[in-house]
Amino acid sequence: MRRVSWLVLSLLIVTAGLVQAAEFVALGSAPGPLGPRDQIEVAVSRLAGGGVRLEYTLHGFEMTPVAIGGRTHQLVTLGREARSLEQGAPDLPRIARSVIIPDDAEMEARLVSIEYRDFPGVDVVPSKGNLTRDIDPATVPYTFGAAYAGGWYPAEAIGQSDPYIMRDLRGLVVEFQPFRYDAAARTLQACTRAVIDVVPVGPGRINVLTDARAPRGLSREFRQIYEGHFANFVLEGTRYPDPGEVGEMLVIAHDDFVSGLQPFVDWKNQMGIPTTLLAKSEVGSTAAQIAAYISAYYAAHDLAFVLLVGDYAYMPAPLSSGAPADPVYSLVAGSDSYPDLFVGRLSAENLGQVALQVQKFVEYEQTPQTGAGWYHMGTGIGSSEGAGIGDDGESDRQHIDNIRADLLNFTYTYVDQIYDPGANSTMVATAVNQGRSIINYCGHGSTTSWSTTGFSNSHVNALTNYNKLPFIISVACVNGAFQSGTCFAEAWLRASQSGAPTGAVAMYASTVNMSWAPPMAAQDESVDLLVLGRKRTFGALCYCGSSLMMDEYGSAGVSEFKNWHIFGDPSLRVRTDTPGTLVVEHDATIDGAATSFVVTVPGRAGALCGLSAGGEYLGSAFANAAGVADIAISGALPEGEVTLTVTDFNMSPYVAGIPVFTGPRPALSVSPDSLLVEMGIDEIHTETIQVANVGDEGSLLAYTIAVTGMGAGQPWLTVSPNRGSVPAGEAREIVATFDSRMVGLGTHRARIVVSAPDLPPVTVEVELVVGDASAVGGRDRPEVLALLPAQPNPSAGGTMLAFRLPQGGEASLGIYDMNGRLVRSLHNGALGAGLHTRTWDGRDAEGRPLPDGVYFYRLEADGLRLSDKVTIVR
């Protein structure tokens, strides 16, 4: 009879509550209470044949007493891991990790080993299931289902999802149950260590990755997702090249709104995101037609972002759970539910609403407020409900407060705590009007409000936070239900006062009643990724959070993702701190026939560098680890001027006009690059420097020379002539005169600066040492062996090599290949002190032209050896 009562009657207990704080339970040698991130380790290694091994080590977990019907049960939590949400079953944590798998193999997860520790005399809390946020969890009774009749639950320790495709990569979720419970024996078992192998067992059948698009590196924005999403990306990611260009954007607008979008399209092209604007009539009138067009465009382009323009009546959406589901447009690779694109919506009913939101998006990125402190201030809003049922067992306010702690450990200096009980709309309005860059909300909601605080559309419309616009992640019911009337998210994006932007710049909000725990996991992940300090777009933050949610909660997470909408520009670069200033180095002009343009942004790896002209995209590249971006130019450069734009996380954009040089282009070379002269008192001495034009044939280099850094007093260094011109392939000799009568004993420094229009100046560092005759010893030559840069370099086969000997003696100068073999001797014998030159014609000792490539030229003299590189390019 007892067994029948468990299975059929399913005991209902309503009176329940948390009775005290969580207790940490150590496993193994854990020294004491550990934070959520330290309670579990998952080590990943590669197996032969494309497999992967996951090794789990649990250091501890937490148990929180819950009173149910007068009896104490335990709520078991493990770090920040999710739970299965199976109503009436023991509420136990599960560990879900995505791994990259081969493109075309069927994979199987296998339990290699597992070790448990027993905890007898434990009653485990049952799950209330996956409740939606229009329900107060406290009103839902606990149900003890079939699993409480006895036997181990869950029966299996491991599982796996179907393979899925996330744009460039194929993956699957490995599901591990580190706890199991026997209710009849009142025994909880906790895993201390486990090993799971994921191995190929045959050809793939589901979501095989056969991308017909042209081969390319991983999408930059999605690469940031992969780094956090796939447990083995650190092992597999090096197999894929890092792309030099950002993914493209497609803007699809209702025909009435196309004219208002040109400033947005121009800015995106200017900053380096190639953007195409299409009218809805060119794409299709139904959601199915729009989806088909996006899929075809994705197959033919490196598409990363889609922006839909128009309210629901103007721009249709696919449906999921009976409500609009824009994220379904992102599912273009495979038959799974993981995003392959970032999709956002500019929801508008008229051209004025389009223009306002375009102004918000562009000004937020293009003209941030220099010196403004509101960028590093945020707001958190949470209800007092959900303890024990929320993700990680947290109530909404606990969840938001943990997010606050993460933000304060990042760039944020202040984050509001607007929590129930007592939260109200005035608190929100006051904070937002002062300026906040991020708002996280978790609680109940409606189509037009947040239930915690009662902040509604009317309050949004009264805001006065002029151009101090936050981005918002909202875990609440139907805040984004834009299919009927102006929803809460639309109010935030459309808000203005007397034409000036107010409200928000972006918002993540759902069109349905959200469930309780899964979206909390997504919000946690979005903030975790933000505080890592990576360069993030709003779309990447939102979709990466939802991808983790789908890993952890399976189908419950999928339904949330499909209805959770990005209101705003998915490519928006969010800001979390006072904007800094970029230091950017580049040529002052660009050749009209150039196929590339190099930009250096010291210390800013990942900075996006774009070339454009009149809003037309010409090329873009990300700065590499050395801060160098090599922009490949697409098509011909226009006459006149192009625009260089450099953007990076939390920085003000750098924008510069670059004149396009259409004639033969000169190039400036000066040798030597330094002078060291020793003189006695009351002496005059001369040295020579060479100014050469190593530019295009037919070019003419006009130059001027100035001496700087000598300080006050009579000049002890002069140059003559101090201006002139040099045809291509020729050099001019400049005489530098040193007069020690103008200075006292000691060391004196100056600079000879050679300048030419539209070219970077070249500086020769000068040092004069003045001593008495005995100290100088009559020597007027530097005591430094010097090997000067080859001119020109690269060379088509004729380059001049110059070197300076401090004293006479034996010297040798030779050309060596990359393997260190001598291929040509240019000098081997005695030479006097001073400057010497030799010309190498790019041939070996037998007079044969050497292959293109890099060679070394080496000088040996006075027991020393100097070398440098020269490149032959014919």
UniProtKB/TrEMBL annotation:
Gene Ontology CC annotation, any one: extracellular region
Top-rank lineage group of the source organism: Bacteria
Species: Eiseniibacteriota bacterium
GO biological process: proteolysis
FlgD/Vpr Ig-like domain sequence ranges: 797-861
A GO term for molecular function: metal ion binding
Pfam families: FlgD_ig (PF13860), Peptidase_C25 (PF01364), Propeptide_C25 (PF08126)
The entry's keywords: Signal
Name of this chain's protein: T9SS type A sorting domain-containing protein
TM ranges: none
Domain Gingipain propeptide: from-to ranges: 52-198
Record domain Gingipain: where: 249-574
InterPro entries, A to Z: Caspase-like_dom_sf (IPR029030), FlgD/Vpr_Ig-like (IPR025965), Gingipain (IPR001769), Gingipain_N_sf (IPR029031), Gingipain_propep_sf (IPR038490), Ig-like_fold (IPR013783), Propeptide_C25 (IPR012600), Secre_tail (IPR026444)
Signal peptide: 1-21
